[in-house]
Amino acid sequence: FIIEATHLNTLYLTLHSKGYESKQCSIPIIRQAESDTIAVEYSLIPLGKYIKGRILDQSGNAHSGNILIENDMDLQVISNTKTDDQGWYFCRIPDKGIYRMTPNTQNYLAHPIVLSALEVQRGDTLQKDIMISSIEQARESGTRFSLKNIFFESKQWSLKPESTLELEKLLAFMVDNPSVSIEISAHTDAIGKTNDNALLSSKRAEAVLEYLVQRGINTFRLHAIGYGESLPIASNDEENGREKNRRVEFTLIKK
């Protein structure tokens, strides 16, 4: 911008730009001649993107706890925010990326949500309530909980090292809740032979079970089953849907 300030000793400015914090500044007018030009540069700070909400159970009751925000691709922790006594949280998220938000509340299981930073405009606050289920409710309803970021080689069942972060969360839940037993289920897309997919999914579910057993969880509390391609949650006609169908889940069961 260019401003003519011929008869001023000091120029006072307020700078505004959408998506950035406003800034007030002053420019001393020091010149040798009337035609002199003073060049000044300023940097504006981008407005933040914020998210707020509550931790709610299936009956709509609020619970206090923590909200863990991770990068959805590699589970790198972005923040771990504590709620107030009424279950409300408020935090800033990075300007770009896709994030996984998981509530941590004692004696409850989380229903994580995935949030894209594109859903929030700079300077705005988006409200997202996050759901939890009591162990009793989850056991009675047979709710399936997805294990994100469990990785195998194509057509193989050996767990890749990148799976460790998610498996450790499941391990911690089993340790903290010694009365809980779970079914570990694995699923495939519909590419290939049905029998081969059933076998592959069984082996993958058993691999997760074996990980927990090696870390001290009693086999009596675990049951592994492979459903192959029989329970799709998306279309197998395109890769995005097939990727969603290739998954590992767990369900609380009665023993």
Tell me the structural class: alpha+beta
- Poorly predicted ranges: none
What is the N-to-C succession of helices and strands?
EEEEEEEEEEEHEHEHEHE
Roughly how many Å is the radius of gyration? 26 Å
Q: Termini, distance in Å?
A: 73 Å
Largest sheet: 5 strands, mixed
In percent, how much strand structure appears in the residues? 25-35%
Report the mean per-residue pLDDT as an integer.
91
The geometry reads as elongated
Summed up, the helix count is 4
Number-wise, the strands total: 15
Estimated helix fraction:
10-25%
In short:
This protein is of the alpha+beta class and 255 residues long.
What structural keywords apply?
single chain; 255 residues; alpha+beta; four-stranded antiparallel beta sheet; 4 helices; 34% strand
Description of the molecule:
Strand 1 (10-15) and strand 2 (23-28) form a beta hairpin. The chain is elongated and about 90 Å long. The mean pLDDT is 91. By secondary structure, the protein is of the alpha+beta class. The chain has helices at residues 135-141, 164-176, 194-214, 239-245, and strands at 10-15, 23-28, 49-56, 66-71, 77-82, 88-93, 98-104, 108-111, 113-116, 125-127, 130-134, 144-147, 181-187, 222-228, 247-253. The longest helix is centred in the C-terminal third of the chain and has 21 residues, at 194-214. It is built from four helices and 15 strands. Strands 3, 6, 8, 10 and 11 form a five-stranded mixed beta sheet that branches.
